[in-house]
Amino acid sequence: MALRRFKADLHVHTCLSPCSCLDMSPREVVSAALQNGMDLIGVCDHNSAENVLAVKKAGSRNGLIVLGGMEVTSSEEAHLLVFFDDDDDLLEFQKFIYQHLAGKNDGHSFGLQVIADDEDGVSGFCDRLLIGATSLPAEAIVAQARAAKGASLVVAAHVDREAFSIIGQLGFIPESLVLDALEISANTDVADAKKRFPDCANYPVLTGSDAHTPGDIGRRYTCFTLEDGTVAEIKKALTGRDGRKAEC
Amino acid sequence: MKLRDLVAEFGLTVKTGAGHLDNEVTGGYVSDLLSDVLAHAEDGNLWVTLHIHHNIVAVAAHTSLAGIVLIQGRVPDQDTIAKAEEEGIPIMVSDLSAFELVGRLYKAGIRGAEAL
Fold this sequence. Notes:
The complex is a heterodimer of chains A (248) and B (116).
Chain A: E1 4-12, H1 26-35, E2 40-46, H2 52-62, E3 65-73, E4 79-84, H3 87-99, H4 107-110, E5 114-116, E6 122-125, H5 138-146, E7 152-156, H6 166-170, E8 181-184, H7 190-196, E9 205-207, E10 222-226, H8 231-238, E11 245-247
Parallel strand pairs in A: 1-2, 2-3, 7-8, 8-9
Antiparallel strand pairs in A: 1-10, 3-4, 4-7, 5-6, 10-11
Chain B: H1 3-10, E1 13-16, E2 27-30, H2 34-40, E3 45-49, H3 55-62, E4 67-70, H4 78-87, E5 91-93, H5 98-107
Parallel strand pairs in B: 2-3, 3-4, 4-5
Antiparallel strand pairs in B: 1-5
């Protein structure tokens, strides 16, 4: 198979995230991503993957590649984006996260957590406290992701932000933490982030939108050169193997 | 003790929720981890933090806190201010460090839970 370029926004929320706009339904996410020129998106709601399969279905009908993932909050309140190629790996991972996530959502304070199907029907509401932090240190989250049968991708989210970033919460990235990449948010220029955060020199970097509204999808993206849009290929691109590339 | 009394005594700058300064302060809590505040702060507590992200407002509303004091002259994000006004959560700012401010609050009679 030939290598080709994929515009990828790996950080997209859906209406399942309490802080997200209710318009972020599976079909709307897919159509906004395509409209904004994306070839691939990563779906990562806070501490849950309950809308991933619906977005994947809606994506496959319309020619958008969708990676299934989650934005996990560690006990240090650092956000990690975790993706899997295999849906069973993701669902197993979700089970593990749920076992370590306490509390019930309060829709008034934190927002609704809508579970939708691929036709945008509401199939239910997640009543877990998705905005909360798990009791898992970042290292335990990475270890669990690596224990999956298939490929996993772990990215420290928006490391340039003060709140909920691993650098903001821990000061620097512990050497023992095996991350595939650091994500720089839409607020910061990549070159500036590299200057401000020395850790950015030690890891591959990518950019994503952290979209909570349809219009924000693809406002920042990473251009990958891959054979196909999978976690395994993206991991190769991040380390520059076999002609794969990641540019942002 | 009311928030209003603390604002006057410690020269706090009121950023939001000026209409809620009659909130009764039942005690104090200091933490920069939102999950910890959710788990351990109590109704009517005054929360001392350096966190300026808008999630502090949701945490304060959910936990029915009397108000939030940001330390070291920290400036709340614009969306934090908007959300706090909407929810009626007082956010005040002190130029002091957390250690110094909490010491003075304690001296003024504000107490925390002894064990959690």
